[in-house]
Amino acid sequence: MARKRALITGITGQDGSYLAELLLGKGYEVHGVVRRASSFNTERLDGIYQDPHVPDRNLFLHYGDLSDSSMLVNLIHEVTPHEVYNLGAQSHVKVSFETPEYTADVSGLGSIRMLEALRAARSDARFYQASTSELFGSTPPPQCETTPFHPRSPYGVAKIYSYWATVNYRESYDMFAVNGILFNHESPRRGETFVTRKITRAVARIQAGLEDKLYMGNTAAIRDWGYAPEYVEGMWRMLQVDEPDDYLLATGVGATVQQFIDRAFARAGLDPADHVEIDPRYFRPAEVDYLLGDPTKASRQLGWTAQTHWDRLADIMVDADVQLLQDQLNGRLAIR
Ligand code: NAP
Ligand code: F7E
Q1: What is the pLDDT of residues 178-188, one digit of tens each?
Q2: If DSSP states are collapsed to H, E and C, what string results for 201-253?
Q3: 133 neighbors 190 (Cβ within 8 angstroms)
Q4: Which residues does 147 contact at the CB level (< 8 Å), separation at least 6?
Q5: Which of 7-16, 54-63, 209-218 has the lowest mean pLDDT?
Q6: Topology of 5-186+227-249 in CATH?
Q7: Is the pLDDT score of 161 beyond 50?
Q8: Cβ–Cβ contacts within 10 Å for residue 174, how many?
Q9: 42 is catalytic
Q10: How far is CA 265 from the centre of its chain?
Q11: Closest to 129 (Cα-Cα) out of 24, 242, 238, 277
Q12: Of 237, 246, 9, residue with least CA distance to 135
């Protein structure tokens, strides 16, 4: 059988990089959309080129942007993918309050541009939309696939548009289009300004004596944090079933930001009381207080279950950031 081709928007992000590795390992030809930037932005893909077990010759990167519909149309014609994973987004909730229109354009309209490109090409590719627990916003937990939405940020509002666009194209045009409603998932590749990575990176720097203080926003918020490599496996499974449907991925276990802080500092033998301070700059105009997912449907129908909960995740991320910093410091010493 011919090799399957997958197209990933957001391939340079946390999830895109893990998904690319997963699909290459399964023998896919992987195509990714990369934004032009003034400095390298493909760092998370470096492992693919360095790992002899991952066939990088099957990875193809294309310059593009979710705001550029003609580019997306041309790309669909060129790649003729079997599967499309729309992971590209302005994905930072706090930043979305400062860039609401841009966030709506990329994280909202971007999905319609991709769906229209597929429709124009009469493609029968299976389409995955990166939906989010931010859709639930202020609706109390536990949240499942039928829980009403009440987004609390321009990011959540943009993503709700993409959620319904995906449902609508499935119903209107008989497309295999699905939403993965993913709760927070993290890893050593998490962007440095999301809360878990901000904490674990600071822990490493405080332990090394490079910093002394960590300034935080609302540490009472509760999140259901899982491990990103497990979640991309769930995305792939959503496109392998017979009938398209929407699924929620979560661990079913929640913790406060404060609990994550305590665990991360303890892992490095530090006391957070000596280092953590609250800075109102990190508060949001509207907060999502409590997210806790019920992943029963994914467990029953996809055979997917999260293996890593927030406490083990904190350990993994602290260890990785401590190691990363050591490597960087050693490199700097070597250059001198
Ligand atoms: P991420 O690390 O922030 O990656 C976002 C990706 O989107 C990056 O590759 C980024 O490119 C790309 N991108 C940004 N603006 C773009 C544009 N205008 N055109 C094309 N690509 C653009 O996010 P992530 O954590 O991997 O999340 C992947 C997706 O899942 C996102 O859609 C996010 O909203 C959603 N999601 C994430 C979580 C989570 O907890 N991680 C949970 C639910 C849903 P650059 O590298 O050039 O910036
Ligand atoms: O915040 C609180 C903050 O920015 C988590 C994105 O991947 O997951 C992510 O969105 C919580 C919030 O993620 C700081 O107020 C306290 O309550 O790590 P975060 P998020 O907003 O949950 C969802 C599912 C997505 O879809 C998004 O794309 O932590 N918090 N102090 C802080 N957050 C940050 N970033 N920085 C702080 O200093």
Answers
A1: 999 999 999 99
A2: HHHHHHHCCCCCCEEECCCCCEECCEEHHHHHHHHHHHCCCCCCCCEEECCCC
A3: no
A4: 136, 139
A5: 54-63
A6: Rossmann fold (3.40.50)
A7: yes
A8: 10
A9: no
A10: 24
A11: 238
A12: 246
CA dihedral 138, 142, 145, 149 (to 10 degrees): -10
Q: Under a CB-based contact definition with an 8 Å cutoff, are residues 295 and 306 in contact?
A: yes
3-state SS assignment for residue 181 = strand
**Average pLDDT value over all residues in the chain:** 96
Residues with CB under 6 A from ligand 2: 91, 93-94, 132-134, 183-184, 193-195, 198, 216-219, 221, 223, 257, 282, 284, 287-288
Taking the domains of the chain in order of start, what are their residue ranges? 5-186+227-249, 195-223+254-286+308-329
Peptide bond into 142 cis (omega under 30): yes
Q: Which ligand is nearest to the CA of 282?
A: 2
Angstrom distance (rounded) from CA 59 to CA 31: 6
When pLDDT is cut at 50, 70 and 90, the band that residue 332 belongs to is low
Tokens of 209: 């004596």
Fold of 195-223+254-286+308-329: UDP-galactose 4-epimerase; domain 1 (3.90.25)
CA of 258, nearest ligand number? 2
Structure confidence by residue, pLDDT tens digits, 98-139: 999 999 999 999 999 999 999 999 999 999 999 999 999 999
**In this structure, what token pair is assigned to residue 138?**
């202020």
Please give the Cα distance from 156 to 134 (Å, whole number): 5
